[in-house]
Amino acid sequence: MTHPLPPMAREGWPYLALATGLAALSTFLWGWGLVSGILWVALLPLLLFFRDSSRAIPTESGAILSPADGRILNIEKVRDHYANRDALRISVFMSVFSAHTNRSCVDGVVKHVQYFPRLLGKKANPGHDQSERSAMVIESGGQIVTLVQVAGQIARHVLCHAKVGDTLTRGQRYGRVRFGARVDVYLPPHAVPLVASGQRVSATTTILATLPKA
User: Which of 70, 74, 137, 180 has its Cβ near the most Cβ atoms within 10 Å?
Assistant: First the structure.
């Protein structure tokens, strides 16, 4: 019985090809040893990171789906500066071993997309998020949901393929953050969270919160 390889994001193939080539070359030149062993083991995080399987999509009315695989960092009332409103923020942390494809958590129309480069030195503003990030504001059934991809210490490249005017559906892939990051989900204050800090979640299949009609 054959087992198909797990689906992989197309952009990951160059990284996998390079890593596999280096591991194979090291083994060919020096045989099995510390260096070749490290290179072969290094393939595992790449395989985990770039996996991109299909997901079952919940159909419950008002459900806000997780945009990423990972763990809930916090749930708190904050100011959503990207959409200029008060909001409930649910943050999902992705480790380097998480699949890093980001997916839309609602059906809706993209109203605003803004990219923020990483700030260093004199450009940095104490008390503000200085990480590289991309914010996307979605109108869903007359309510606003904001998704913010935030690069971590290792990550240095945020990818958001969505553009203003695009119509997204629940579970639709819209981008990724390479090698360790988080996604912040800003919801209307009356949203009801269904997850807790520290809980493991899966992109699309986990319902983060419900959004009653305003």
Answer: 70
| Predicted structure pTM score | 0.76
- CA 64, chain centre distance (Å): 15
- Asked if residues 96 and 197 have their Cβ atoms less than 8 Å apart, the reply is no
From 187, 188, 183, 179, select the one nearest 202 (Cα to Cα). 183
CB atoms within 10 A of CB 11: 12
pLDDT, one tens digit per residue, over 108-143 is 999 999 999 876 644 444 344 677 899 999 999 999
Return the residue matching tokens 């997204």: 168
Token code pair at residue 42:
């290094």
User: Which three-class secondary structure string do you get for 103-151?
Assistant: ECCCCEEEEEEEEECCCCHHHCCCCCCCCCEEEEEEEECCEEEEEEEEE
Q: What are the C-alpha distances in Å from 143 to residues 66, 93, 108, 189?
A: 17, 25, 9, 11
